[in-house]
Queue: 2 jobs
Job 1
Amino acid sequence: MSKDTLTITDNRTGRTYEVPIESGTVRAMDLRSIKVSDEDFGLMSYDPGYMNTASCKSTITFTDGDKGILRYRGYPIEQLAQHSSFLEVAYLLYFGTLPEPDEFVRWDHGIRYHTMIHEGIKQFLNGFRYDAHPMGILVSTVAALATFYPESKKVFDADVRRIQFYRLVAKMPTLAAFAYRHRMGMPYVYPDNSLGYAENFLNMTFHGSEPSSTRPPDFEHSPVLARALDTLFLLHADHEQNCSTSSIRMVGSAQTDPYTAVSAAAAALYGPLHGGANEAVLRMLKEIGSTAGVPEYVKQVKAGERKLFGFGHRVYKSYDPRARVIKTCADKVFEVMGRNPLIDVAIELERIALEDEYFIKRKLYPNVDFYSGLIYEAIGFPTEMFPVLFAIPRTPGWYSQWQEHLTDPDQKLARPRQIYLGETVRDVPRRDG
Ligand code: SDX
């Protein structure tokens, strides 16, 4: 019977070591006993980008990159997209189970009555230039919420954590909508507690917008749009240990309050390689302009001169299951708002890429960001709002992962080591005079 251990022979000393294998991993700390002398610090693992490092144990989200599987608490994302809602999924991520009807009524009521933000936040908003990037505004204002709820520092009090969870899930759309209205120079539209989560956000954002050829009257109350946006939110709710979630876990390990920790996660999400990719995809599609421009752009990508934003993923080496569902949302939104002609460029880009050896060899497939921006643009969001539309729904995922990290007895303050390649010790030159 094979043992769940790894036998390591250190050829520098001829010594062998046996380290246990647990859940397909070895503990990095077990390497420290491998030394060449008693003064030796011992072996460490070196893993830039954490390509092959498990930072935590989690029961929240499971992905299988080769099979294109994504499950929240065991439920396949495709089934949740079809049968559930964003608020139900937010509850699922945090509490671990889908809410019973009476539980959902209480949860939904709690969210609706925490959507308001302190009037003082408007002072911060007015301090930003009109053209400030809304993610810069969101990162700042969500951190500022910590100053209005100082009790949130009691991170080991489960009741305190729960009320902050309600507040963050409820207030992120309000902060986002206010950031948009500030940019447009339009008056803020306060939350309307009679509306569902997605419709309330659409109303706070677009109420009073002038109808146009692509904006039917009262589009912000379209049930089709609200359902499509709710599904998009649901698909973005969590994704195990991505860059922004790992960031909130690292910041949370210092026992920082959850608002400031969410702000750190949003800051990580802002980057164009992560949640900022949906914004970069739209800029890329607009630059390509038409299907005729696709071959030249693909040629530049293959020459290493450009990146195909919305393609590739650290985990998915097959089609991102979320991209498939998002593509179906696009058709429903286009029925209401008119077809975004850039979808033809995206479809042609996908067609060529999926046939081309360069992308096949590197297992580059469309990811969650490839089609989402087309929908956001069709609804009427400016490109700069796209990462904000990622941060809103990722908040319950970040928060659930933050809580799991904080309450995991295995975890402690995150403090990685390094390989020092700098100067050896040297004296400061004496400068007389
Ligand atoms: C998200 O982790 C998550 O879960 C994130 C996320 C979530 O829900 O939280 O799923 C959300 O962030 C999705 C990813 C959005 N980002 C983009 O669309 C930006 C474009 N994608 C790439 O930057 C890239 O694919 C990454 C960053 C997403 C992943 O890159 P990896 O795993 O670090 O792989 P790599 O950069 O080492 O690339 C391997 C090869 C390289 O070629 P070679 O050096 O071997 O010749 O593939 C190439 C890369 O140059 N490559 C690309 C490419 N992505 C990888 N070439 C062109 N275009 C791309 N998009």
Job 2
Amino acid sequence: MYKKFLNLGLQPLANSYLQKNNLKKKEKNFKLEIGIDMQTLLVSIKNTVPKQKMFNDKYPYNSSASKTMKKSFFDLAQKIKKNYKHNYLLEIGSNDGAFLKNFNKKNIVGVEPCKNLAVITKKLKYKTYPNYWNCNLARKITKLNKADIIYSANTLSHIKNLNEIFKAIKLALSDDGILILEDPSLLECLKKVAYDQFYCEHIYVFSTIALRNILKKFSLEIFHIENLSTHGGSNRYYIKRSQSKKNKVKSSVKKEILKELNFGINKFRTYKDFENKVKKSKKKLLNLLKQIKNKNFNIIGYGATAKSCTVLNYCKIDSKIIDYFYDTTKDKINKYLPGSKILVKKYQKLNYKKYNYVFLGAWNFKSEIFKKEKSYINKGGRFITHIPYPKII
Ligand code: DWN
């Protein structure tokens, strides 16, 4: 039974940045409600948006935009090369090639339905299929040779039809092959009150328990888990066919499941607690921003993330409060954040004389950003974050 626990109101499509001449046009909105299936414990958004409206030829997000992600992908590639012998590797959701580029062109195949991204790796001569992942594509790619490793980061949580995904993965994976999945962890999301992990593209935020329940239906099994600090706290799941004798199940799986159970991931009241914390977070953030504005200080935003879209629209924050956002992504610059209609400007190093306060939209890259903006912080510039609760840092 699906039980709703959070209502984040009417929201626009998170990555649909507006051009100046479209500011007056009515945007497509959808009701962002979140709930849990009490049988599988799968947390998902209730209303979904057709994939073609989100992942098309204008997807503005580049995985290579952060050093943190590039390093995380590099480290994993080294680990795979060292520990897992493989004929070739298949990546589902290869984005701009941040992971792919760590491998020899002959040893890796990418699948990326956003055509503006697929073209980037194609140009670099990496075999890239500009398609949505499904059974037909899996058959086509692996007709002659199944993949020993399938990797997918921050992608499966974006695909509604989990049955199709896993059927296709089973078609494509060799008998003793390994599936490596990486997505934000529900446990971390709940702990950090990171309600902005929910937006149109994030259909699911997985717990280990929910993922294990889903995988069971496909005779797939998690044999190892790594906790990552990326994207606000993610899990990297190493998965095999249940009947494969290779790769013994490690203690990390039991450990993670116990952590989740201790937190109450299997109890509905945990989610109602989360709802209360989210409501408090909204009040506190608005109060904090208003206090700052009342003292005639200015505020800009840093990192026009999809997550920011949820925060800004749920808390009803607009350009009267945040003057504009800085972002390094070419496709977002000189456009406006959906809903809140706050302008995104090309990133410039922060100048403490110009900006008193900076709202950290990309809170998941806090360490990277703080390193970059050390001199702003040392001179007295201040950041505002809402994670795990609204405060000035
Ligand atoms: O799952 C998803 C994740 C992986 O990426 C997608 N659904 C969409 C997207 O979500 P997001 O926009 O919340 O992701 P990020 O990675 O938190 O976005 C960071 C943004 O901040 C980018 O637009 C780049 C920008 N940025 C910046 O301007 N300066 C990032 C860093 C590190 C910086 O120094």
